[in-house]
UniProtKB/TrEMBL annotation:
Start and end residues of each Casparian strip membrane protein domain: 41-193
Keyword Endoplasmic reticulum: no
Membrane topology: Multi-pass membrane protein
Protein known as: CASP-like protein
UniProt keyword Hydrolase present: no
């Protein structure tokens, strides 16, 4: 018999301590991998959907801008009228907007195809590709925002005029032309906002991946 004053052997302490479960806040490895894969897939789907929105808005803006042509008879004297044509090519700002929309449409097609290929992969979009998207999306965001602002400023003068500079408004006569151009500017604004959201989404995805390391 073992007396009350005897001590428990050292190997018994080790056996008892091994039976106590360890508590940790970290998720088991088998649960982390599927969760990361699911997040990557969601990010790839959102990325692809955003680029489809950019493509649709850019193509719509191109079509409206190209078809923004209207001819009106302007009376300059009693019994005398001349034919005047209003079209987007008369303004450098509108031509710049058309070039920006074409660039955005082509870019969205290329990056959309890349996003589709990334969506087919198990890991989704890689960190390196996300970083490249951030750089290129920021560049396109600047181009689209500048073109939208420039074209919008010219269109506002056409809609309201400027009495100080003696610029007469024309949208009261060329209403169809102004409607086409205005809708095109609105669609380019949607493209700009979508580019901004893409930059935020990719930066957020990169920051989450860095935080897990």
């Amino acid at each position: 018999m073992v007396s009350n004053g005897s001590t428990i052997p050292q190997h018994a302490h080790a056996a008892i301590s091994m039976e106590v479960p360890l508590k940790t806040s970290a998720s088991p490895p088998e649960y982390i991998a599927p969760r990361l894969a699911c997040d990557s897939k969601k990010h790839a789907v959102i990325n692809l959907f955003s680029r489809v929105v950019i493509l649709a808005s850019a193509v719509g803006g191109i079509i409206l801008l190209i078809t923004s042509k209207q001819t009106k008879l302007i009376t300059i004297a009693p019994g005398l009228a001349i034919s005047k044509v209003a079209k987007f090519s008369h303004s450098d700002a509108h031509r710049y907007l058309l070039a920006a929309l074409c660039t955005a449409a082509l870019y969205s097609i290329i990056t959309g195809l890349i996003s589709v290929l990334a969506l087919m992969k198990p890991g989704g979009i890689s960190s390196r590709l996300k970083f490249q998207f951030v750089i290129l999306d920021s560049l396109l965001l600047g181009i689209m925002a500048a073109a939208t602002g420039a074209s919008g400023g010219v269109s506002y003068i056409g809609y309201k005029g400027n009495s100080h500079s003696r610029w007469n408004k024309i949208c009261n006569m060329y209403n169809s032309y102004c409607m086409h151009v205005g809708t095109s500017i609105f669609l380019s604004f949607i493209s700009s906002i979508t580019f901004l959201l893409l930059v935020w989404i990719n930066v957020y995805a990169l920051s989450k991946k860095i935080a897990r390391r």
